[in-house]
Amino acid sequence: MKTPLQNIDVGLLVASTVGIYERSSKWAKVQAQHLKKQPYCVACGTNVKYTNGLQVHHIIPYHICIELGRADLELDERNLITLCQTNENIITPNHHLLIGHLNDWESFNKTVKTNASKTFYAQTSAQIKLNLTWLKLCLKKPNRITDLSPLQKAELKNYINKKFPL
Ligand SMILES: [Zn+2]
User: Fold this and answer.
1) CA–CA gap between residue 29 and residue 43 (Å, rounded)
2) Element of type H or E holding 134
3) 10-23 tens-digit pLDDT
4) What's this model's pTM, rounded to 2 decimal places?
5) pLDDT, tens digit (0-9, with 9 covering 90-100), for 30-39
6) Ligand 1 centroid, distance to 108 Cα (angstroms)
7) How far is the CA of 102 from the centre of ligand 1 (A)?
8) How many CB atoms are located within 10 Å of the residue 136 CB?
């Protein structure tokens, strides 16, 4: 059965809060290429297209990249990771929301790669939510872009430029 979430592009919905109403025209192609290379959730290995199935997640959300002058990172393989997404009330975990976004679609997780492949690998939603490391990550999760001070924006921009050199 389809859930309402399945039909919504959550990343685009969040981007619309800062006035970005579309994805790059090249996104669909880049997304398909990434799914060919990484056709499974990095946090649990599933490649089954259940409910919402696999999502190509932006490590740094694409609207933040655009806001900070790095629109190129919407399409940059270094900024992508495949995670499963589903209704977390059913038996399957929602690694996109819990590991990629620390349970807040408007935030993100800088250490998602390590957390997915090691820290929380193969954990269920319930196990992740009881994990002290996860709770600490949630407490320190980045603020939404509109709540960042100019200094915090500059720091994030610096972080992104160091992590993903042009
Ligand atoms: Zn998963």
Assistant:
1) 23
2) helix 132-139
3) 888 888 888 888 89
4) 0.89
5) 999 999 999 9
6) 16
7) 14
8) 10
- Separation of CA 91 and ligand 1 centre (Å): 12
How many whole angstroms from 19 Cα to the centroid of ligand 1?
A: 30
Ligand 1 is an ion; its neighbours by CB within 5 Å are: 41, 43-44, 84, 95
Query: How far does residue 110's CA lie from ligand 1's centre (Å)?
Result: 18
What is the count of structural domains for the chain? 1
- 94, with CB counted inside 10 A (0-12, 13-18, 19+), is buried
> Domain range spanning residue 48?
4-163
Q: 132 in helix, strand or coil?
A: helix
Quick check: 50 and 41 in contact, CB under 8 A?
Answer: no
| CA 48–ligand 1 middle distance (angstroms) | 10
